[in-house]
Amino acid sequence: MFNKKTAVITGAGGTLCSEISKELYKCGANVVLVGRTKEKLDRVADEIKREGGNVLVYPCDVTDKEGVKGLAEEVKRVFGGCDFLINGAGGNNVKAMPTITEFDEREIKGDLPDGQRGLFDIDTDAFKSVLDINIMGTVLPTMEFAKQMVERGGGSVVNFASMNSYCPLTRCFAYAMSKAAIVNLTQSFGAYFAPANIRVNAVAPGFMVNERSKTYLGTVEDGLTERGKKVISHTPMKRFGEASDLLGCVKWLLSDGAAFVTGVTVPVDGGFLTLGGV
Ligand SMILES: NC(=O)c1ccc[n+]([C@@H]2O[C@H](COP(=O)([O-])OP(=O)(O)OC[C@H]3O[C@@H](n4cnc5c(N)ncnc54)[C@H](OP(=O)(O)O)[C@@H]3O)[C@@H](O)[C@H]2O)c1
């Protein structure tokens, strides 16, 4: 399906994009695995290499302009350029979040119980870093790799939005606003790059299972936390998503089957967005 194509995947050592990387390799693509921690990328690369695949591991912080430039040069040198970019690197930071879900007047006087933190006590550097990774971490790789896609006559970019893009969850200020920005950016980059035959779309995963989610949401099989119960009661399909649930959508967005599709964000969420919650 993707023979002779080269796919750069950021966040490739993570839960969702490791599976996407393996799937794109299975579909014939050369894959470039990007993230800050080499060991995580090596684990994914080892699985791919066992099957003889063309894989390049490149540890890099996607918010670092020079680092991303070096990544693009290496992709050009090794594979001749990039056809597909998956902007999967992203995340949140607990220091950017209050522990309480709504304003409590005790936070004004610093009287919240031990271990509790209101909005006024969050770490604003952490807040900025969340905006940076989710927003600039998508903008910078797109700018670099769009140049190579232009040289190759076109390409396809898939960004990562979230349920927070549409309506913020409690406590997630920086994460939610940055994922809302991804929907908007996907539209404006989609329009901007259309004359270059580069399509820019996004997926908005619902609540997917990963090691973190098992702690703060629980599991359907072994018991849910209060927050997990709210999510499942709001999800018509009554389960969390798996990385494998994203594969069909990502492959479709990358493929010629979506040749007339650009600027859209596709929710992959078990129906979470269909309900108002009442
Ligand atoms: N899981 C969900 O339920 C869910 C729902 C909606 C949206 N999403 C989005 O989907 C994407 C993938 O999520 P996931 O669940 O697979 O998360 P994950 O397991 O935490 O993977 C994210 C990966 O991004 C990498 N990363 C973070 N900051 C980076 C940076 N500055 N430069 C380069 N790489 C960086 C991390 O590796 P290093 O730390 O080694 O760099 C990590 O491997 C994210 O954008 C996330 O916001 C996830």
Give an overview of the whole structure:
There is one protein chain. The chain is of the alpha/beta class. The protein folds into 2 domains: 6-92 and 130-206 and 244-267, NAD(P)-binding Rossmann-like Domain (Rossmann fold, 3-Layer(aba) Sandwich), CATH 3.40.50; 209-240, no CATH class. Helices cover 41% and strands 15% of the residues. The protein contains 8 helices and 9 strands. It has a 7-stranded parallel β-sheet with strand order 3-2-1-4-5-6-9, sandwiched between helices. Helix 1 (15-26) runs parallel beside helix 2, helix 1 (15-26) packs across helix 8 (244-254) and helix 3 (65-79) runs parallel beside helix 4 (124-151). The longest helix has 28 residues, at 124-151. The model has no long low-confidence stretch (mean pLDDT 96). NADP nicotinamide-adenine-dinucleotide phosphate is lined by residues 10-11, 13-17, 35-37, 40, 61-63, 88-91, 133, 137, 160, 162, 205, 207-208, 210. NADP nicotinamide-adenine-dinucleotide phosphate (NAP) is lined by residues 10-11, 13-17, 35-37, 40, 61-63, 88-91, 133, 137, 160, 162, 205, 207-208, 210.
